[in-house]
Amino acid sequence: MSIHKNIKAVFFLLAVVLMGSIAQAQQAIPQQRFDAANSLYQQSKFTDAAAAYQQLIDEGFELKPLYYNAGNAYYKAGKTGEAVYNYEKALQLAPGDETIKHNLALANQKVSGYVDELPLVFFQQWWQQLQLLHKPNGWAAGCIVLFWLVIAGIMLNRFLPGWKNKFLRWGNYALGTLFALYLIMAIDTYAVANDHQSGIIIQGNTKVKSAPDDNSKDAFEVQEGMKVHISDATKDFCKISLADGKTGWVSCGLIKRL
Amino acid sequence: MKDRFNIKKYIFSILCCLGLVVCASAQELRFTTSVSSSAVTVDEPFQIQFMLENGTNIASFTPPSFKDFEVLQGPSQMQGQSIFNGRRSEYFALNYVLQPKHVGSFTIPGAQARVNGNVIKSNPVLIEVRKGNAQAQTPQPSQQQAIPQHRSQGGNGLSEDVSDGVLKKGEDIQEKLRKNIFLKVEVDKTNLYEGDQLTATYKLYTRLPTNSSVTKVPAFKGFSAKDIELPNPPQATEERINGVPFKVFTIRKTLLFPLQSGTLELDPVEVDNQVRLVKLVSNKRSRGGKDPFEEFFNDPAFKDPFFDDFFNRPEVEYQDVPYKIQSNPIKINVKSLPVDGRPSSFNGAVGHFKMTATVDKKSLSTDDALTLKINISGQGNVNLLNSPKVDIPSGFEKYDPKVTDDIEKNSNPLTGSRQFEYVLMPQEAGQHTIPAIEFSYFDPVANSYKTLRSEPFVIDITQGKRIRQDKHDFGVGKNELVKIDGGIYKWTQNRQWLIVSPWFYVLLLLPLLIAAALIYYKHRKDYNTTNAALLKHRYANKVALKRLELAARYLKEGKDKAFYEETSRAVWGYLSHKLKIPFADLSKQLIQDKLAARHINGTNTSDLFELIDNCEVALYAPGSGNDRMQGTYSKAVIIITNLEDALKN
């Protein structure tokens, strides 16, 4: 009886280990899950595909194609709000990607009352282009490398009288300037990526209140998929402002922050 | 007498029949525009009708644009056959109710139709729009073109009981007319719910032979109206009022559905009558209480030359009297529908309805299309039904429904069905559920709301053969989604921000620390070296004096070589320490330079060099006396002391 029990226990353990390893294997190969979701999309099972992408996103994978495909799946499944959200996320990872912009524009066409945001001024565009030169961590890494070089240059200049010349000095100035630029870029990219001051309305026909209170009167209505700027927030309510200047309060649960 | 009359009647009917046949064979195509009123005020609606008679093979029918008018109702189509004045015709007509927007005279161009391959146009109509003055509206009887179905031809078949067209002597014409011709409006209810049905019947009561035409039809503001087709030509019925028999012609019978609550008014109808009265001339032969020919006075056959000849008797005289009458306006009290218990799916339907909802297939592929039919049938405002709300799941593309009506002709209350046909294109494979379709209506009989619900539909959708290949095309108007990315990527979870990780700061601090350490080390080293030189500098005097003390001992013992050696070492050592020159680098020239740099010149320097020379000479050429040694010693002491003083400041 006890042997029987033991065998049972062993089997149970084995099963648990096996299951665990399978689960781990599944966790370990997101690429396969991504491909599976893609094939679901190809079979026109958009809702299922969107759920599969969303699972990967929820696990913390941040990848432009993942957000982009999720956006497509949500779009096809008719969930405009989620589609816009995912396209915006993809665009954050790859600003200026024409494909994402195109699909985002399509999704925005479904949002009635959508107002185009103002285009960036040329120097803002340059700044954005410049930011694309490196990945955010690339700027930070460059920052470290340049700092080492600057310090090394200063040391050479100071301790080795034979190295003392104006070329080294000017080189040091240049390196120092570059270091400052990289540091600013690293900080700025971080700030931009972690700026959660905008969001997407994910529920259709949301009533916007004139004050952060359920009983206050409705100011206007926003459509699912509308991009809003969050300028203030209480515990439950967020103050939103639209691209066309309208402001009002909305329950924070209806906004998915970018 | 009686027999003869019967024969006449036969002859008359045969003639009538003949006439009818002749007319029917001579059917001609007619395309006319008619308006209910050609002179209207600004806010007075009027009706316009484009009627195509005897047209077969109508390929198209294009109404003109009403740019200066607002279309209140219409277009409503009419189609059918009519027998009008004994003429049989087939007609097809479009009706609009228009309201002028501005004052002025406007020409509404005719409608265009293509019949048997020929394009024909109806006549344009001139409409004169006067300034609005709702109370002082005076209809214009002239130019009236009565719409055929509304025209009643009085006197056509009045039986002898009613024929009272003989004006007796001394009788007041107006009084007689007022008594014998009047209009009456009958409504089946005056208190009802919004959307409920109301039947209004406009009737003309007459006892006189008249030729009447309707000059003003009610507009039914605030109602949706549906006319019941009346027999054409109008059939008279008989009704007794206070024991007096009247011929009754129904001018208009309309089903009305109030569109708003409150007190609404049914506009009056106006009728122009031409009453033919018969006067008996005094010198006629005396007649009995009842003249057997009198019945014929009311007959149209009266005008027939054959009868004219026959009956044209001198003692009879006719008089045509125009007489205009108007019905009384009627007030209707419309209650708004109760708010309590109103279902969310309520959409304005009032009456008693049934609903069926069907889908044509339960399983299909994404290449295929699905049809969802919702049929609502019953009694009530069928013509005003809105589509029930259909929640189509997101996996389908929904198009606007096709609406087909099947309303029973001349049913009262209005009975029929309306069908909404949705075409759904599946976008997504899988199993989808179309939720139950809900339809609510208000039942005025039960005084409550009722809700009908269909079963939900479960639809299986398989992937079709056609896999849509979205193209990369950013052209304007290309509304296709760009396809998904399917490459192989590096999957990193939760992107780490280097800038907020401690490593970033450690790596930034590290070179600073290294540099600081280097600087500290160098500083320490420099300090140490400079410190040693300083000490030597400070204690140079003492070292030199110690050496000279040793030299003094050698002097006493008479060891001249050792004495000179020690003295020379004392002087050189002193100079080396004091001037911070390494021992190996010492030379007379360097010392002279250094001293000159410190502005120490004159005797001190020359004495110093003399002393050094002496020592050297004594070292390499020994044998000098003790005095000289004593002198050298004291000189060395003096020079070092002097130099010490000179170098101090």
Automatic annotation (TrEMBL), chain A:
Sequence intervals crossing the membrane: 139-160, 172-193
Keyword Cell wall biogenesis/degradation: no
Keywords: Membrane, Signal, TPR repeat, Transmembrane, Transmembrane helix
UniProt superkingdom: Bacteria
TPR repeats: 64-97
Domain SH3b: from-to ranges: 205-251
UniProt keyword Phosphoprotein present: no
Signal peptide bounds: 1-25
One Pfam entry name: SH3_3
Official protein name in the record: SH3b domain-containing protein
Organism of origin: Chitinophaga flava
Automatic annotation (TrEMBL), chain B:
Ranges of Low complexity composition bias in the record: 134-149
Pfam families tied to this protein: BatD
Alphabetically ordered keywords of this record: Membrane, Signal, Transmembrane, Transmembrane helix
Signal sequence segment: 1-26
Descriptive protein name: Protein BatD
Transmembrane segments: 503-521
Region of interest (Disordered), residue spans: 132-163
Species for this entry: Chitinophaga flava
